[in-house]
Amino acid sequence: MSVFSESVSVMKGDSVTLHTDLTEIPKHDEIVWTFGSNKSLIAKINKAAGVFSTFDVPDERFRDRLKLDRQTGSLTITDITTQHAGLYELEIHGGKLTSQTYHVSVYARLPVPVISRNSSQCSSSSSSSQQNCSLVCSVVNVGHVTLSWYKGNSLLSSISVSDLSISLSLPLEVEYQEKNSYSCVINNPITNQTTHLDISKLCQPCAVNSVVVSAAAVKSVSVLVGDTVTLQTDLTEIQIGDEMQWRFEHQNTPIAEINRATEIFITSDRFRDRLKLDHRNGFLTITNITTQHAGLYEVEISSTISSYVIHHTQSFRVTVRDAVKSLSVMEGESVTLPITEIKNHDLIWWMFGNIRLAEIDKAEQHFSIYDGPDESFRDRLELDHQTGSLIITDTRTTDSGLYEVKIISSRHIVNSIFTVTVTETYINTAYTPRGTASSSNNYPDPRLSPDDLDPCLSSAVPYSRLSSDGLDPGLSPAAVAGIGAFCFLLGAAVGAAAGVICYRYKRSKDSKDNQMQNQPLKRQLGKYYS
């Protein structure tokens, strides 16, 4: 018996795949996945019996979250939470028993540290308070993290905690007008958040107190490509002495700023004439927005009230998605839902309603396709590994609907929506005599010419009902002979005109037999449905 162990760390809300290290499941092997110390069965594969099953535990924590790879037996857990942390065990029963354990740790997303000045410093008469600026870095509702102060790249101090949902604070003293770079960092084993100290703003002389006020939550804004969006501050009017700076994605250089006292009103050139700043209230408007402008926008407003300077920060998470794209396809054909080339660290999700169809992790070179809960897409989905586009083959009318792709990168999230319509195709073979008003070509479907139709038939026949010579394969030889006789009598009764039509049909049919004998009818008529 072979035993292996592996530790896996993942962020809350992400997906994680526990790999079996198999390239293909042997035909007679059985694979069993269990969870927890009591080894609750959550997945089972018996390839010989055609069994590929996932199971929930009594508290339903795994409901709709487990996916099995039919080729390798790997197990994927989607939208993971802290409830899914713990011990997972894989057993492969074959020529020998192989067991592998996975210790999965799930970490919550980290808040941004807040740096503020010690409010009691200016009430102290000590010589130290007159020379140094006393600061504190704080975070709330955190667990399994470390909070640290850095001077440049050198660690000054740190504090760690393993409990859940507690508050942490770490003090620091610096000299007034000091030019060194300081930052406060919170981190866990897989990610971190950093706030850089601006000494010139926080460390004012004690005659003026400095207070930091942070926005309660990040506001989410979603817009379409090409739209205009306005990010609104909480101000109704900027006062004399107020300063305002807009930043994008935590960059030091502001993209827009206002200083009412010096009458400075600036917008950045990097947005190429897309920014407009309201001089009255500081609202920032972005025109003709693109996916490159998706991300986090922050505005810091510094106001002087009596002996206090108040720094108020607001944040906006802007998501930009493409307009809905409409795609139409005939049943049985393939359709491609296109996106541009993916970047090295992009994460892509393809959805059909609430059903996840495919997932790409470009950094890990992981490309996954799912069949859907009823396996309606089984063996009909393909991924373009270069562009990330989704291809649906052998389309069905049940594939019609809304498809969404979400492209997640370190800087922004882009959503695109496609509406796909799959149409079942029928051919109308009804003949309309010349001179009637039903069609300019005297045929119900103007895309069909007289050479393609039998004027002696008058019914709507699906592709599946037609044989290679254009006749219903269900007709008996006697029925075919009867149709020929009818054409003959019709020609004698109404004159040469109808006779010419039947003659043209028979002649066209005979000339095409050798050329199109083995071609499907849909291919023969494809030029009329391009």
Task: Explain briefly what this protein structure is.
The protein has 530 residues and is mainly beta.
Secondary structure elements and their pairing?
Elements: E1 2-11, E2 16-18, E3 30-35, E4 40-46, E5 51-54, E6 66-68, E7 75-77, E8 86-93, E9 97-107, E10 114-117, H1 127-131, E11 132-142, E12 145-151, E13 154-161, E14 166-175, E15 182-187, E16 192-196, H2 199-202, E17 209-214, E18 219-224, E19 229-231, E20 243-248, E21 256-259, E22 264-267, E23 275-277, E24 284-286, E25 295-305, E26 308-321, E27 325-330, E28 335-337, E29 347-352, E30 355-361, E31 366-369, E32 381-383, E33 390-392, E34 401-408, E35 413-423, E36 426-428, E37 460-462, H3 477-494, H4 496-516, H5 521-524
Architecture overview:
The chain has five domains: 2-107, Sandwich (Immunoglobulin-like), CATH 2.60.40; 110-214, Immunoglobulin-like (Sandwich), CATH 2.60.40.10; 220-316, Immunoglobulin-like (Sandwich); 322-423, Immunoglobulins (Immunoglobulin-like, Sandwich), CATH 2.60.40; 427-529, no CATH class. It contains five helices and 37 strands. It has 530 residues and is mainly beta. The strands form eight sheets. Strands 17, 18, 20, 21, 22, 25, 26, 27, 29, 30, 31, 34 and 35 form a 13-stranded mixed beta sheet that branches. The two termini are 61 Å apart.
